[in-house]
UniProtKB/TrEMBL annotation:
Its cofactor is pyridoxal 5'-phosphate. This is Threonine synthase. Belongs to the threonine synthase family. It catalyses: O-phospho-L-homoserine + H2O = L-threonine + phosphate. One of its GO terms (molecular function) is L-serine ammonia-lyase activity. PANTHER family: L-THREONINE DEHYDRATASE CATABOLIC TDCB (PTHR48078:SF6), THREONINE DEHYDRATASE, MITOCHONDRIAL-RELATED (PTHR48078). Catalyzes the gamma-elimination of phosphate from L-phosphohomoserine and the beta-addition of water to produce L-threonine. InterPro entries: Ser/Thr_Dehydratase (IPR050147), Thr_synthase-like (IPR004450), Thr_Synthase_bac/arc (IPR026260), TrpB-like_PALP (IPR001926), TrpB-like_PALP_sf (IPR036052). Pathway: Amino-acid biosynthesis; L-threonine biosynthesis; L-threonine from L-aspartate: step 5/5. The modification N6-(pyridoxal phosphate)lysine is found at K114. GO terms for biological process: isoleucine biosynthetic process; L-serine catabolic process; L-threonine catabolic process; threonine biosynthetic process. Pyridoxal 5'-phosphate binds at N140, T378.
Length: 411
C-alpha cells in the first residue's frame, strides 16, 4: 500500500498532510480539488515493471503500491479492473488510424468504470472506521458504491435523480442501499447528499470532492499503458460529466511518468454531450473556470450541469495538448449501435460518448494515420435499455407461422 506524501490543491498549490483535510482545499472551497501525491523516489525502489510482470493479481490492486489504501484487509474481494482492451482493426481501417483500441470498462463487477473508485472509497471508509458511506449519483457511482459497501458490511445511502434509469435503481435496491430518489436533477441530488453527509457524519464517496476516488479511477489508465506494453497511446477519448474519469486518466500517466514507466503522456480528449457541456465551453473559450448550465441530454450519466472536478479535467486536457469535443444525442445513439455492431461492445449512452467524439474528430480529419487511439467505454449498455431501444428498429412480431414469417422477412 502506498503512503500518501501529501494532498495538493489543484488551484492554489497549497499542500496538506493525509488526514489534515478530509476532502477539498479549505482555502479554495469546493472548487479546490486535491491531488494525491506519493513519494515516487521511494516507490521506484520496489515497484517496477518487472514486479508487475510477475504479479498474478489481475485486478486493479496489482497497482496497490500507488493506491491510497492503508490497510490491505479493507480491500473487498470483488474483481475490479483489468478489463479487456480490444484491438479493433475494423475501426482503425474505417477511420484511418494506425490502431484503435476499445477499453471495455462495462466489464467491471457492477458494470461501469465507477467500480474502480468505489473499491477505493469503501476501503478508505473502513480505514476511517466509518460504518456508513454515501454519495449522490446519476446511478453508476451509486450502484458500484452500493455493491462494494454491501460486501464490506457497510451501510449505504444513495441520492439519485428521480429520473435515474430503472436498471441502475434496481441495482441499488438489490445491493440493499437506502435509496433516496430526489425530485430534481443530479445537482439537486449532490446538494442534498452533501447536506446529509455533513449532518450525519457519513463517509463521502462523491468523487468530485473526495481526492482518493480519482486514484481508483486512474487504474483504467494504468491498465491501458500496461496492456500496450508500457507505451502510452497517442490519444485517449473518454466521456466527461463531473470530470473525474478524465482526471483519473491524467493522474495515471502523471504517476507512470514520475515513476519512469513511460516517457510521454497521451493527449486526452474529453467528450461531452452537446446539451451538457460546461467543461467543453470553458476549454473552448479559455475561461478560468466553468459556468454552470442546465443539463439536457439522454446520456444520463453525463447530464452534469455543475461539474465538481472541472479544474482537474481542464488541466488534463490542457497539459496533455489534448482537446474537447461535443456530440449530440443522435450521434451518441448512432455510436452505440456502431460500436456494438463493429466490436461487440455494448455501452450505455455515456459509455459510448468517447467513441462518438472519436468518430466526429476522425471525420473532420483531426486523426493522423499514424496515430494509436484508445477509447474508454465507461458503462455497460444493459444499464439503460430504454435509450438503447431508441437507437434501433423494432423487432418483427409474428404469429408462430412459417408462411407469415417468410412474408415478413423476404422482400
Ligand atoms: C458511464 C459513465 N460514463 C462517463 C461518466 C463521466 O465521468 P465523470 O463524471 O467522472 O466525468 C460517468 C459518470 O460520471 C458514467 O457513469
Ligand atoms: N455520473 C456519475 C456522477 C458521480 O460519479 P463520481 O464517481 O464522479 O462521483 C455517476 O455515475 O453517478
Amino acid at each position: 500500500m502506498a503512503r500518501v506524501l501529501m494532498l495538493k490543491c489543484v488551484l492554489c498549490g497549497r499542500t496538506y498532510r493525509e488526514r489534515e483535510v478530509d476532502y477539498t482545499c479549505p482555502h479554495c472551497g469546493m472548487d479546490g480539488t486535491l491531488d494525491v501525491l506519493y513519494d515516487y523516489d521511494e516507490i521506484k525502489k520496489h515497484f517496477t515493471r518487472e514486479c508487475l510482470e510477475k504479479s498474478r493479481d489481475f485486478t486493479q490492486w496489482r497497482y496497490r503500491d500507488i493506491l491510497p489504501v492503508n490497510d490491505e484487509t479493507n480491500i473487498q474481494p470483488l474483481e475490479v479492473g483489468f478489463t479487456p482492451l480490444y484491438d479493433s482493426g475494423v475501426l482503425a481501417r474505417e477511420y484511418g488510424a494506425k490502431k484503435v483500441y476499445i477499453k471495455d470498462d462495462g466489464r467491471n463487477p457492477t458494470a461501469s468504470l465507477k467500480d474502480r473508485a468505489s473499491a477505493v472509497g469503501v476501503a478508505r471508509a473502513l480505514d476511517y472506521g466509518k460504518n456508513t458511506i454515501a454519495c449522490s449519483s446519476t446511478g453508476n457511482a451509486a450502484s458500484s458504491m452500493a455493491g462494494f459497501a454491501a460486501v464490506a458490511g457497510l451501510k449505504s445511502f444513495i441520492f439519485v435523480p428521480e429520473s435515474a434509469p430503472e436498471a441502475k435503481v434496481a441495482q441499488l435496491l438489490i445491493y440493499g442501499a437506502t435509496v433516496v430518489l430526489v425530485k430534481g436533477n443530479y445537482e439537486d441530488a449532490f446538494n442534498l447528499s452533501t447536506a446529509a453527509i455533513y449532518k450525519f457524519g457519513w463517509y463521502n464517496r462523491n468523487c468530485g470532492i473526495n481526492p482518493y476516488l480519482v486514484e481508483g479511477k486512474k487504474t483504467c489508465g494504468l491498465e491501458i499503458a500496461e496492456q500496450l506494453g508500457w507505451e502510452a497511446p497517442d490519444r485517449i477519448f473518454i466521456a466527461v460529466g463531473d470530470g473525474c474519469c478524465i482526471s483519473g486518466l491524467y493522474k495515471a500517466f502523471y504517476d507512470l511518468k514520475a515513476l519512469g514507466f513511460i516517457d510521454r503522456m497521451p493527449k486526452l480528449v474529453g467528450v461531452q454531450a452537446a446539451g451538457s457541456s460546461p467543461i467543453y465551453h470553458a476549454f473552448k473559450y479559455h475561461l478560468p473556470k466553468v459556468e454552470f448550465v442546465k443539463p439536457d441530454t439522454l446520456a444520463d450519466s453525463i447530464a452534469v450541469g455543475a461539474p465538481r472536478n472541472w479544474a482537474k479535467a481542464l488541466r488534463a486536457v490542457r497539459q496533455t495538448a489534448g482537446d474537447m469535443v461535443t456530440v449530440t444525442d443522435e450521434e451518441i445513439l448512432e455510436a452505440m449501435k456502431e460500436l456494438a455492431r463493429k466490436t461487440g461492445v455494448f455501452g450505455e449512452p455515456a459509455g459510448v460518448t468517447g467513441f462518438a467524439g472519436f468518430k466526429k474528430m476522425a471525420k473532420e480529419r483531426y486523426i493522423g494515420m499514424d496515430e494509436r487511439i484508445a477509447i474508454v467505454v465507461t458503462g455497460n449498455g444493459l444499464k439503460d435499455i430504454a435509450s438503447a431501444r431508441k437507437a434501433v428498429a423494432k423487432p418483427i412480431l409474428v404469429e408462430p407461422d412459417i408462411n407469415e414469417l417468410l412474408k415478413r422477412i423476404c422482400c
